[in-house]
Amino acid sequence: MTLHPALADLLRAVRDGGRPPFSACAPGQARTVFAAACAALGTGPEVGSVDDFDIPTRAGAVRGRLIQPPKSPDTPPVGLIVYVHGGGWVVGTLDDYGAIARALVVRTGCALLMVDYRLAPEHPFPAGLEDVQDAIAWAVAHRSDFLEPGRPLIVAGDSAGANLATVALADGRAGGWTRDVALQVLFYPVTDCDPNTPSYGLPAEALFLTRADMLWFFRHYAPPDLWPDPRVSPLRAPELAGLPSAWIATAEYDVLRDEGEAYARRLEASGVAVRLRRFDGMGHGFVRMMNHVAEAHAAFDDVACAIAECAVGRSGGLV
């Protein structure tokens, strides 16, 4: 199908308004442009509490933000989501992703921990990845501080955040803590460095994220000789067995569509339970438009149901 009319109108307005593509920006300018776009999505619903604190890492500490659901004595959090925001490893802040984080908390009844990992190019690969690894491992070790016994820990991320999340989980297998994660939620993940897939060939005028943008992000994140490294391109990992069950969303009009779907197939072939959803007519980043586009709201509802099913011990509804 064609790009959803609401998204087509938004894309046209963005370009008519003169907003430069990421590939034409310096990193600081790209962050300003991205923050302005995120602010237009709103702040999200009211929650129980929001608290910032430091999470210890091998490099010192990163900021964490714990968002709790509306509280009552009879409704403690049903799970803990560790959320890794997107932004091509270069842009994005905890505030930029506050709306979707708050919505996930209210919709699922889970507490949610956001991770303010270091960004490239000031902190290139593997700095951000190590921050995410350490933050997830810390959350596993401290889950009893946030959850009643038996409640699940879920790791979620979008775009480059989904890349960091799933790679961190793969690396965590050696330390044994990955088995304590019940579900990974990956919104339109970056899983490979091949810019020649059919989805990379989609017409640029129908894309929120273009081929040129993705190459710009990659160049800032890591030198080209490291792009095929499985810790940058997890689709190239020799083995994916032992990872948590996965809920994966892709968008029809997204350069990352094909690699996200290929990663889902690799996970399934490795014995990992996967629920893959392609959302036709949607573009990159569409889930955060849930308050504006019915199809985006449906996608958000689908993942919220998977998380809720996981919280009651049904493996995210994936098996």
From TrEMBL:
SUPFAM superfamilies: alpha/beta-Hydrolases. It comes from the Bacteria. Its EC number is 3.1.1.-. InterPro entries: AB_hydrolase_3, AB_hydrolase_fold, GDXG_lipolytic_enzyme, Lipase_GDXG_put_SER_AS. Coiled coil: none annotated. The active site is at S159. Pfam families: Abhydrolase_3. Residues 81-287 form the Alpha/beta hydrolase fold-3 domain. GO terms for molecular function: hydrolase activity. The keyword Transmembrane does not apply. It is an enzyme of class 3 (hydrolase). Keywords: Hydrolase. The keyword GTP-binding does not apply. Belongs to the 'GDXG' lipolytic enzyme family. This is Acetyl esterase. It comes from Methylobacterium brachiatum.
